[in-house]
Amino acid sequence: MASRTYQAFLIGIVCIAFILTSGPTMVKAEVLKPTYVCELPCFGGVLKESICNTVCLKKGYTKGGSCREGACCCKLNG
To answer: Which residues form the signal peptide (predicted)?
Structure first.
């Protein structure tokens, strides 16, 4: 009777040891920096891409901008 108790205990210890020695299981999530600032609606029909790009350049965003989901998004300089 005592040997069965020790067997379960030892199997539990061995399982815990395998889990701990298998290495880290959690992956650290990387926080991504925003690359666009969206603040204006995209107007202009066919020319909306070029209008949005021009507006962003005039606001000081050196990389310009593009329309994304109906909004004019300026690319961040950094």
So the answer is: 1-29
